[in-house]
Here is the input.
Amino acid sequence: MRRMWPEEFNAIIADAEEVMLESSDEPGAGEAPLHRKALKARIAMEDYERIWPLAEMRFRLGEGQFAGKAITLITTNPHYHPWHPKDGGSIESVSDSGRRYKTDYLIVHFLLDDVRETSPA
Here is the structure.
């Protein structure tokens, strides 16, 4: 089954930065060093709460600069602990009505994979 990334969440990854996840520690017995492409994004806490049910599932991207790729939101996987969601700070703003409000942000990482289609011979 091919799960497509919900279009309503495209804005969350639109400004994501492509990075390389690399382990700095010596790998344990039987483990290889980690080198994985990923997307790093700073997103509002409310957006994170909306995409939380999609965590650890692989989704294909159909539009934008990452079309033809697949992403997986890293949340609790112990192999990727250094890239679990972390504090991304907050910004205080003033609404049009003059009321002050604060927006909290998180830094999240999505594993980024190429999607290879096989065609019948």
